[in-house]
Amino acid sequence: MGAAIVRVPPRARVGEVIEVSAMVAHPMETGYRTGDGGQVVPRNIVTTFSCRYDGVEVFRADLFPSVTANPYIAFTTVATRSGTFSFRWIDDTGAVVTETASIVVE
Prior knowledge:
The protein has no helices and 8 strands.
């Protein structure tokens, strides 16, 4: 798995609905394609994405082979306090990518 890009507003007001987005570089090999020599290329997709806001899970998604390469996910949540968003992607091989972003809530 490659690098991750995350976006969280740097500042928000208490109670404000904010948009959070995340993308990870990953080929998302479905397991249905044949490679050189006619052999099936093994499946390797991002299977799980999760996001925690100060340790509390605010979003989780299970992904499947129909998801495009470099999956992009966006969702909204409510800004409740200053803190850290922690993002985590896991693929079929067990590889894990993590990223963090901070927000100041006034």
